[in-house]
Amino acid sequence: MGRKNLLEHLLTPPAEKTSGPTQVPVQLPTARKPVARGVGVVGAMSESFEAMAADLRNSKEKIETGGLVVEISTDLIDPSFITDRIGDGGDMEEFVRSIREHGQQTPILLRPHPELEGRYQIAFGHRRYRALKTLGLPVKAMVKALTDDQLVVAQGQENQSRLDLSYIERAIFAARLEARKFPRDVICSALHVDKTEISRMISVATVLPDDLVEFIGPAQKTGRRKWMDLAKNVAQLNWKLEKGRIFETCREGDVVDSDQRFDLVLRILSHTQSGALADTQATSVPRFKVERKPGQIRIRFNETNLPKDIVEALLSRVRDVCRNMGVES
Question: How far apart (Å, rounded) are the C-alpha atoms in residues 289 and 182?
Fold first, then answer.
């Protein structure tokens, strides 16, 4: 039998018999129609477009998870909704020169803008962004979908790891997060300190007037203790009345950097408080008034112009006298 006849019965069903028992015809499964595909140039273009779409989807996923560094125009980027620096963060001209000569070495972190379609918001890397904007260059960035909490934690921890921010900048950052109702545990994570230290930072930052902090600057070498001393001095004077004289005196001083300006302001305020205390002590005695009635002694004085520590010291002495006399408060 020829090869053709051998294969013929596999390709075509056998002919029905005309005699004998009735045969139920066997229904062969219907073959699925192949998906029509273009051939030649059209088919190649279709496959190419499909591959490009897959690459774009893959790239989009990598961008959104922060796994890919991309270049983005500075015109599409907005700063973080909360600032963490005083001024531009240092010698910006030198920083721009370094970027021009060596390029951007480290990408910044962005998130898709939560309110503006097609725009981005900085989590960290504001100085690099400003330098590249000055140079008219695109920004190398990682883009990641972040919540507000995640953004401020990333922003704070990046600055913490780079040791860029001074004490007062970190304190102001904490106070601004507090003002925006961020939970304390988020603020602690952002600055990598405990709740006690966060409370101190916020206390210092809220006492100090914005114009005073801007005038002094970041004071990179000035630590917590000195800033607490400055806040204590500011709390004991009428800043609106005194600030003009203090700024003028500072401008007359021979200072060249932010830390020296801080020291000068602290000396002026300390001297102001010493003079105010002496004036208060010299004029406060006539303001005391003692009233004595049957079974009752009352001491009156106007505490409005007295420093808080003087008032507390006086009350403490009165309490001690009362306890020694067996009189309970």
Answer: 48
